[in-house]
C-alpha cells in the first residue's frame, strides 16, 4: 500500500480517535491507559485538570497513581485490583480519595479493565476511567451524619420517655400509697392507732344494717384520768392511753370492734353477744385494767356502761342507753353497769 493510500486511512483513524476522546470526556472526568509492557500510564488532559495539575505534568507511571491514593484507602483499592486480576471481579472498580495539586483529597470512582492481550492471552493494556464523585460522597456522608444524629435523638427521646414513664409510675405508686395512708389516717385515732369515732360510727351503721342477732355496745371511760395528767404530765397520760388497746385486745374476738370514742373514753361493739356475756367481758376488762401497772407505776380503773342492741334497734337509742349505764357506773367508778 502506498503512502497516498495510507493518508485517508490515517485521517479516518485520527477522526475516530478524536470522536472516541470526546465520548470518553462526556462519560468520565479522566482517562488513564496503562501499557503493561512498558509500564507507561498515559492520562488524559481532563484527568490532570480534574486534579488541578498542569496537563501531562506528572510522571506517567503506576507509582504516580499509587502515590496519590489516600493512605487509608490504599488497602481496599489494592484488594479491588487484586480481585480483578484474580478473575473474581468482571472489572476493576474502586472508590478512593485522590490527592489534588492543592493537597486536598477528592473522592473518585475508578473503573478499568484489560483491553488488549498478547498472543499468549496475557493482558498487556488496561484502560480506566475516573469519575469525580466528591459531591456525591459528601452528600452521602452528610446524610449518614444526619441519620446518625436522628437515631441519637430518637434514642434520647426513647430514654426520656422511659424515664418519664418510670417517674410517672413512681409518682402514681407514691400517690396510691399516700391515698391509702390518708384513708388509713382518716379513720384512725392518731394516738392509739384505734378506729376513730367517725369511722366507728360508719361501721356501726353498717353493722346494724346487717345485724340479725343481739349485739352489745360497751362504753368504757377511764376514771380520774385528769389526775394522771395533772400528776405525771400530759405526755405520760398519752402513754397510758396508748397502752390501753394492747390490754383490751387479748380479750376480744376478731369480729369485735374497738375504737377511741373521745378523750379517755373507748367504745366496743360486740356482735352476736347478749347482755350477760357483754357484762362478763366488761368485768374481765375492768379487772385487767385495775391490775395493770402503767409507766411510773400508775394505777388506773375504768367504768363501763353496757347496752344491748337488738335487730332493728336505732343505734342512737342504744348509745344513749349505754351512756346512761356508764353514767350510773361513774357514780362508783371501777364498775360495770349493764341494762336491767
Ligand atoms: N394525756 C391526754 N389526756 C387526755 C386526752 N384526751 C383527754 N384527756 C384528758 O382526760 C381528762 C378527762 O377529764 P375528766 O373529763 O374530768 O374525767 P376524769 O378526770 O377521767 O374523771 P372521771 O371521768 O369523772 O372519772 C382531761 O384531763 C383531759 O385533758 C389525750 O389525748 N391525752
TrEMBL record:
Residue ranges of the PAC domain? 92-145
Is Coiled coil there in the keyword field? yes
The Swiss-Prot or TrEMBL record lists the needed cofactor(s) as: Mg(2+)
| Enzyme Commission number(s) | 2.7.7.65
Enzyme class, first EC level, given as a word:
transferase
| Stored InterPro entries | Diguanylate_Cyclase, GGDEF_dom, Nucleotide_cyclase, PAC, PAS, PAS-assoc_C, PAS-like_dom_sf, PAS_fold_3
Name of this protein: diguanylate cyclase
